[in-house]
Amino acid sequence: VNGTLCSLPAGDVKVALGGELYVQHIQKDAVGTIPTGPPSSGASVQRYRYERTTKSGFVEVQVPLVSPEMSVPLVDKFDVNVSYRFDDYSDMGETGNPRIAFGWDIVDGLRLRGNYATSFVAPPLTIFGDKNRTGAFGTSGYNSTTNNVNVPVSGYPLLPSMGIAGCTAGSATCNINSLTGVVVVSGDPNAKAQEGDGWTLGVDFAPTAL
C-alpha cells in the first residue's frame, strides 16, 4: 500500500506499507550405495527436512523539506527517505533494520546523496540444516568422504607424514584420495546470520544544458 500521507510546503509526504508471509519447505533424500550389488541392495537412505517461516513488515516514508519555490540559498531541493523492515524468522529469531537516506540538490543539475542502513541475511536452509539433525531416516549426520585432489606440500608440510604412497617432502603435490575424511550432511544448526551496516555518499552531475 502506498500513497500520499500529507502535504508540506515543499511537497507531498509519501508513505508505503507492506507485509509478507514466506513459508519454505525443502526435503532432501540422500541415497548411498554399497560397493557391490545393485543400488537397492544394502543402500542407505537419509532424509532431511528443512523448514522456515518468515513474517515480515516494512514501512517507508519520503519527506520533501525544501523545494525550488522556497528560494533557499544553495538548496534547490532537499528530501529525506526513512524506511524500516522487521523480520521474524522461525529459526533465527527477530531482526529490525532501518535505512535513512537524503538527497540534496545544491543547484539544478548538481545533487548530493547519501544513506545509512543495516542488513540481515539468514543462512540458507541447506546450510542451517534439519532441525532434527539426522532427519526422519538415518542414524548419523556425518558421512565418510575422500577427495581426489592434488594438494601442494608447501602449503601443507605434514602431508608426507600421513603415509600417502609416493608422497615425500620433496614432492610438489600429493594426491589425498587415499585419506578418508568426514563430511557433515545434516547442516550446521549453529550457523549464524550475516549482519552488516553500511553507508554511501555520492554526487550526481547532470547539467540541463547537456
General description of the model:
This protein is mostly beta strands and 210 residues long. Strands 1-2-3-4-5-6-11 form a seven-stranded antiparallel sheet. Strands 7-10 form a two-stranded antiparallel sheet. A hairpin with a 2-residue loop joins strand 1 and strand 2. The longest helix has 4 residues. The chain is elongated. The two termini are 37 Å apart. 9% of the residues are buried. About 3% of the residues have low confidence.
Instruction: Kindly state the number of beta strands.
Output: 11
Helix content: under 10%
The largest pleated sheet is described as: 7 strands, antiparallel
Tell me the structural class.
mainly beta
Q: Which regions have little confidence, pLDDT < 50, spanning 5+ residues?
A: 134-139
First CA to last CA: what distance?
Answer: 37 Å
% residues in beta strands = over 45%
Q: What's the average pLDDT?
A: 87
Compute the gyration radius: what is it?
Answer: 29 Å
**Cα shape:** elongated
Strand order across the biggest sheet?
Answer: 1-2-3-4-5-6-11
The secondary-structure element order is EEEEEEHEEEEE
- Counting copies of identical and different chains, the oligomeric state is single chain
Number of helices: 1
